[in-house]
């Protein structure tokens, strides 16, 4: 890419970042950058906080694998909270908090990953036809510092991923993942512990 095209690309992303932070009332630290335009839904009482030097990437341009869609940040209920730490790189990922999703510092999340803390609807086994009219309250997701999540993963509510853990591409994760471990598969299982 020529220097001129690169400069235009940087300016465009800085304009997008300023617009998103202002229009959606997202709390950010210095150096946060949105590459491309994400999908955002935020309840007026919900909170989205992003730490310094974090990149939210919704652009396939320059990214090493195919990204199927833009990032999504959904905090659509009054008590919904999304917290993303500093120095993270999040690519083409859906983060949907009905309750609370916390992502620590220095995390890498590859494209097409889904992180959602809610089933979307209550089980309603006593009256299954009622499911369509219900909303699940969600179960907190906590991703600690230095976690690397590969492409096309699903992280379900009630999950805690420990410091430095790696989740291999295409995994479905629910439960407690120990620090400094590699987990993968569907359901995700221990591959190696350090």
Give the SSE layout.
Elements: H1 3-23, E1 27-28, E2 33-35, E3 39-42, E4 47-50, E5 55-57, E6 72-75, E7 81-84, E8 89-91, E9 94-96, E10 100-103, E11 108-109, E12 114-116, E13 141-143, E14 148-149, E15 154-156, E16 160-161, E17 166-167, E18 172-173, E19 176-177, E20 181-184, E21 189-193
Parallel strand pairs: 1-4, 2-5, 3-6, 4-7, 5-8, 6-9, 7-10, 8-11, 9-12, 10-13, 11-14, 12-15, 13-16, 14-17, 15-18, 16-19, 17-20
Antiparallel strand pairs: 20-21
What does this structure look like?
With 194 residues, the protein is mainly beta. It has one domain (3-193): Hexapeptide repeat proteins (UDP N-Acetylglucosamine Acyltransferase, domain 1). It is 11% helix and 33% strand. It is built from one helix and 21 strands. It has one helix at 3-23; strands at residues 27-28, 33-35, 39-42, 47-50, 55-57, 72-75, 81-84, 89-91, 94-96, 100-103, 108-109, 114-116, 141-143, 148-149, 154-156, 160-161, 166-167, 172-173, 176-177, 181-184, 189-193. Strands 2-5-8-11-14-17-20-21 form an eight-stranded mixed sheet. The protein has a seven-stranded parallel sheet with strand order 1-4-7-10-13-16-19, with no helix packed on it. Strands 3-6-9-12-15-18 form a six-stranded parallel sheet, with no helix packed on it. Strand 20 and strand 21 (189-193) form a beta hairpin. The longest helix has 21 residues, at 3-23. It is globular, with a radius of gyration of 17 Å. The termini are far apart. Belongs to the transferase hexapeptide repeat family. InterPro entries: Hexapep, Hexapeptide_acetyltransf, Trimer_LpxA-like_sf. Keywords: Transferase.
